[in-house]
């Protein structure tokens, strides 16, 4: 541009691609990022080289997956296991779009997934350049923070004022002889680092506008929220690789300090002391405590302190202790306590105290929807899965106040529920044992029960039939024996194998995934781990009933009984398949173990396997599920 009075010469010093990548990487590590999953690509190369430098310095761990969707769900599992932000790196183009399912799950589950996407520079946008599309604002409904970064723009500077500003800044910081370009580049790095820092704060659910030192950066959309995913779109201009004489990044000093805390355990007796309550002074109420997904062990402690029955979903991680009621969905019945198929105790419930997100059963949904019940929800901070005011439960932040609302159970209230649960659980166990004796092998419901009861350590449950089977059948242990993970943010089956791999890598423990055949096939790419990559210690237990079993338990099962509709329901909902899982395992280099009996299952899971992955396949008859469920329901109802 010519020098004219209206257009004075401006300085627009640019950071090269590797300088941008190194600045962003340093800010990510400083902000707590310790793991990232990389999908291959050329445009993302600068960030990959910078991350590799940080890994060599011991500051983080990297994992490689060739498929972006698998990479994103692996990162999601790592974040689930660690409680930290975890990055997923992609190149430009359609690669970016493959992150959407995992970002949607992370949004609704409150997981700090950091999408780091590479992009073409400004001058290539809208030109038809290869692998170039608009990536800004691609995930607006599902991220807490989104920003496009590049090496081009000096922030917060009027172009007409750049020369004077740069000269003044240079004189102040580096002396009168300092070149304005040096100052501009330094300020640009500071800008990039501040944006990354704000993004990570937003991922943690913080309102970054009130954080000293971060306010005033333009073009950043931040909303106060629960923890969740973020998106940093990085525009890189060639060259994309280090120069031959590149001296490498500035020295990384020291090792990473501090490890993820992992899930927090709460001792029920400790909570009783913390609440400092005289239970006898509370009002009596026939209250039950419902523990939904992600609540943690707090509901178990709360129910214990107040002497209340606890109805806990498997992925609540509160399903333990003497207050936890076994077979509770059968006791509630289809109408949440008001139907003919419910236990008389359920109709006597006066109040429900909810922790976490109820996601699994229509029985609990019906219970919470009962107009005759008072309901309250423990909400100490914003959550990701509903907007304030959208649910009928009264939100209560303080546990002491919640205890006053809940009251304590009248004499016999808890005991009656415990006895009903014991009788129902025994009837369920007997019905499943009888079924096993008839067919000579465990079915889907019994397999889910055995896996949940046997696993000691991380357990990942697929979000379809199996997690519901566990909820129906798992006898609550006295003390917690496993940590249960599940993608219940949106309850999809996509990415489950990759999520479980991330959990195994993140915990460093042998992990068990229990899933159906369609869940396995939906993420079969998650089985691919390249040579030289860390292989998760993972057992995948597949209940293979050759299709989708969940729909038989929904309205579609009744539709299938109508004349001429069985084939329609089977084709479009059952979605039958005949894939050879054994051949699939051979293709991916995994050990395949057929499971033909309860002894096979228990001895394999309870043994001492070597490192790596195994697939345990148990074949089940999907058509028998309604009949088995009916037999169990009849046995349980006979105990009422």
Short description:
The chain has about 650 residues and is an alpha/beta fold. The protein contains 23 helices and 18 strands.
Walk me through what this model shows.
There is one protein chain. The chain folds into three domains: 17-235, 3-Layer(aba) Sandwich (Rossmann fold); 268-415, Rossmann fold, CATH 3.40.50.1220; 444-620, Rossmann fold (3-Layer(aba) Sandwich). 38% of the residues lie in helices and 14% in strands. The strands form three sheets. A seven-stranded mixed sheet has the order 2-1-3-4-7-5-6, sandwiched between helices. Strands 14-13-15-16-18-17 form a six-stranded parallel sheet, sandwiched between helices. The protein has a five-stranded parallel sheet with strand order 9-8-10-11-12, sandwiched between helices. α3 (68-82) packs across α17 (496-507), α14 (413-439) runs antiparallel to α23 and α15 runs parallel beside α22. The model is unreliable at 1-13, 155-177, 210-223 and 253-266 (pLDDT under 50).
């Amino acid at each position: 541009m010519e020098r004219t009075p209206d257009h004075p010469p401006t300085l627009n010093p640019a950071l090269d691609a590797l300088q941008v990548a190194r600045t962003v990487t340093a800010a990510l590590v400083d902000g707590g990022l310790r793991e990232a999953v990389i999908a291959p690509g050329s445009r993302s190369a600068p960030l990959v080289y910078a991350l590799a430098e940080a890994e060599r310095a011991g500051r983080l761990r990297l994992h490689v997956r060739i498929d972006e969707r698998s990479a994103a769900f692996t990162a999601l599992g790592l974040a689930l296991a660690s409680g930290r932000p975890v990055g997923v790196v992609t190149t430009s183009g359609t690669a970016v779009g493959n992150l959407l399912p995992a970002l949607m799950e992370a949004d609704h589950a409150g997981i700090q997934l950091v999408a780091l996407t590479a992009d073409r520079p400004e001058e290539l946008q809208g030109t038809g350049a290869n692998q170039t599309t608009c990536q800004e604002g691609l995930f607006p409904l599902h991220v807490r923070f989104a920003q496009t970064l590049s090496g081009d723009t000096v922030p917060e500077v009027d172009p007409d004022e750049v020369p004077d500003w740069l000269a003044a800044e240079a004189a102040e910081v580096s002396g009168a002889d300092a070149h304005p370009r040096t100052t501009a580049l330094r300020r640009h790095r500071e800008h990039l680092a501040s944006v990354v820092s704000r993004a990570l704060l937003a991922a943690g659910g913080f309102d970054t506008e009130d954080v000293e030192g971060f306010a005033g950066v333009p073009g950043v959309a931040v909303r106060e929220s629960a923890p969740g995913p973020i998106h940093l779109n990085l525009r890189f201009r060639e060259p994309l690789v280090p120069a031959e004489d590149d001296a490498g990044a500035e020295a990384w000093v020291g090792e990473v300090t501090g490890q993820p805390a992992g899930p927090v355990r709460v001792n029920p007796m400790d909570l009783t002391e913390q609440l400092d309550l005289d239970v006898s002074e509370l009002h009596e109420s026939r209250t039950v405590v419902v523990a939904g997904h992600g609540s943690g062990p707090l509901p178990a402690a709360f129910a214990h302190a107040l002497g209340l029955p606890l109805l806990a979903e498997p992925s609540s991680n509160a399903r333990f202790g003497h207050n936890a009621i076994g077979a509770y969905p059968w006791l509630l019945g289809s109408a949440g306590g008001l139907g003919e198929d419910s236990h008389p105790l359920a109709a006597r419930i006066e109040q429900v105290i909810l922790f976490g997100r109820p996601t699994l059963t229509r029985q609990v949904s019906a219970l919470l929807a009962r107009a005759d019940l008072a309901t309250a929800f423990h909400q100490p901070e914003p959550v990701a899965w509903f907007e304030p005011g959208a649910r009928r439960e009264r939100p209560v932040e303080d546990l002491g106040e919640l205890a006053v609302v809940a009251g304590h159970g009248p004499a016999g209230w808890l005991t009656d529920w415990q006895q009903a649960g014991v009788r129902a659980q025994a009837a369920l166990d007997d019905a499943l044992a009888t079924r096993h004796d008839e067919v000579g092998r465990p079915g889907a419901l019994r397999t889910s029960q055995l896996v949940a009861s046997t696993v000691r350590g991380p357990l990942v449950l697929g979000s379809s039939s199996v997690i519901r089977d566990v909820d129906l059948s798992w006898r609550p242990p006295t003390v917690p024996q496993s940590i249960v993970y599940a993608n219940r943010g949106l309850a999809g089956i996509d990415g489950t194998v990759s999520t479980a791999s991330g959990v195994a890598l993140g915990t460093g423990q042998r992990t068990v995934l229990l899933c159906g055949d369609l869940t396995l096939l939906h993420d079969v790419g998650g089985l691919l781990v390249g040579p030289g990559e860390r292989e998760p210690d993972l057992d995948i237990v597949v209940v293979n009933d050759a299709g989708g079993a969940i729909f038989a338990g929904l309205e579609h099962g009744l539709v299938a009984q109508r004349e001429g509709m069985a084939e329609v329901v089977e084709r479009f909902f059952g979605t039958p398949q005949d894939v050879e899982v054994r051949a699939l395992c051979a293709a991916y280099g995994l050990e395949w173990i057929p499971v033909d009996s309860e002894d096979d299952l228990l001895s394999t899971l309870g043994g001492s396997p070597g490192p790596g992955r195994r697939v345990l396949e148990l074949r089940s008859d999907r058509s028998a599920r309604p009949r088995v469920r009916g037999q169990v329901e009849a046995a349980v109802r006979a105990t009422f």
